[in-house]
Amino acid sequence: MRILSVLLVFLVGCSSKKPEGLRTVELLPGHTRAQHEATSQGVMITSQGTVSSQAGLEMFRQGGNIIDAAVAVSFAISVERPQSTGIGGGGFLIFYEKKTGKSYVWDFREIAPLKGHAKMFLKADGTPDPEKSIYGPFAVAVPGIVRGLWEIHKRWGKLPWAATVQPAIRLAEEGLPVYPHLVDAIKYESPRLKADPDAAKIFFMPDGSIPPVGHILKQADLGKTLRIIAKQGVRGFYEGSVAKNIVHTVRTNGGIMTAQDLQGYRAKERAAIEGSYHGFKIISMPPPSSGGTHVVQILNLLEQQNLSQWGPQHPETVHRIATAMQISFADRAKYMGDPDFSPIPSTELSSKSYAQAMQKYFGPKARPSKDFPLPAIPDDKTETTHFTLADSEENIVVSTQTINGWFGSGLVARGTGIVLNNEMDDFAQAVGASNLFGAIGGDKNLVAPKKRPLSSMSPTLVLKDGKPFLALGTPSGTRIISCVAQTMLNVLEFRLPLYDAVAATRVHHQWMPEELRIEKPFLPSAAFKDLEGRGHTVKRQALGCQIQAIQRVGNRWVGVSDPRGEGLAIGE
Ligand code: GLY
């Protein structure tokens, strides 16, 4: 079956082939290409978790629809990647409904507690206290995932709500084999996790050591919480014992979240950001994500640059991509925030006329970032997750979800197994002041009660002749925008087969810090010399993206789960 599947991928992918010399990443040890690339005329699921992708398939097999599958993947990935995402966090989801041709955009991003305010992350001397927005009780924003999934399922779901939570309950109770990335995350966050009694109990061995790869990690408390949510629905999270335990944990640690914050949380339906690239239509996430706006902006800027003449990894191409990123990230810093609190010019920024006006910034040499007279942006120390689904009717779901940094705030709500996010760090701590990452925040992204922190998450869909053609997204903070835009360029401009488009070496420039990051496998040293000769400060550094993408090729879906990660592309 697998051999047939690989053969089909080869056949449908024949319209485009990997250019000679293209640098692409290797799979992780022990992984096979068949896990990361699949083809199907029916349904397709790509996610960062093996069991999570299978949970989606299970819903389809039970007669459920793409929404049931999306809800099941969301709950399952909460268990399978507790370092990255979970019901203690928030996210975005776009549902493209084939029969109406409409894209429904859902925002279930976390919000600041009612007692939150613009100066809450400043020390007594008025300088920012980055630790406070990253670790502990003040870092926790009011979670949105369960409310968002509930609303989406209520409107479109077919299977009973409880059925969609079932695979996650099973995974939490029966356990999952610990994988290297989870070990790394536990190791890195050990001091914080050990300081929290619930986290220490769940994520370490009885003798306090780090669980080895292959150890079966059970999350019994999370299983209990999921059973409550399965039975009681949204109220099981935002009211009752679970809500009480979340508030207890935040408050006993000195934080400000209240029961009213949880009860008052609402998910929002928003209008998509729309754009185009050489006739392909782009649909992506609007503010409070900066993602969609800047993905469209980067592509608009590059549409006029005719990158095909050089090819995907030529220094000329990389230099122009870096310039487009510099312009876009400078704008992100100045203009982006929660649209419910101040007007955000996302339509203008993502317009063709703006891209035309900004062509003057492209030249043979790198421009110093100070040439862009704007404040810098906050970087994200982030994990996050993304999944993409397609079904036989050509409906699509793309969703990016997060608790922000590895294990979020490092707090687990008492007795619930819920890892609480640190999304408050996506707010600017102060205007014009450096945060932990040497970046600076803008005034539209200061904390205010019930405000959503600025995100980079970019679940994105591309239509060709009015039909779904490509759907994708990724984790990794500000790098999300760069990785999504480059993967789109690889498919739409360079016509690479999807696997190579995802596996190809990527670059990132976020204007501040003033550096062009290039990940492994590195470009040839001549390319580095060329870019340095143009004035770029080139840094060899991983970007952390793990694209989950689905493309329509002929009458089939091709799904690719980034070979950089542990995910699974599975079709049927
Ligand atoms: N926390 C990552 C993001 O929202 O972009």
Question: Would you write up a description of this structure?
Answer:
The protein has 572 residues and is an alpha+beta fold. It has two domains: 51-92 and 106-266 and 393-445, no CATH class; 270-381 and 458-571, 4-Layer Sandwich (Glutamine Phosphoribosylpyrophosphate, subunit 1, domain 1). It is 35% helix and 16% strand. The protein contains 21 helices and 19 strands. The protein has helices at 2-12, 33-36, 50-61, 66-80, 130-134, 145-156, 161-174, 180-188, 190-195, 197-203, 220-232, 235-238, 240-252, 259-263, 291-303, 315-335, 346-349, 352-357, 479-492, 498-503, 525-533, and strands spanning 37-40, 44-47, 90-97, 102-108, 176-177, 216-217, 268-270, 273-277, 280-284, 385-390, 396-402, 460-464, 467-473, 507-508, 516-518, 538-540, 548-553, 556-561, 568-571. A seven-stranded antiparallel sheet has the order 1-18-17-13-12-9-8. The longest helix is centred in the middle third of the chain and has 21 residues, at 315-335. The chain is globular, with a radius of gyration of 22 Å. Mean pLDDT is 93; it is low at 1-15, 374-381 and 434-439. Glycine binds at residues 380, 382, 384, 402, 404, 426, 455-457, 477.
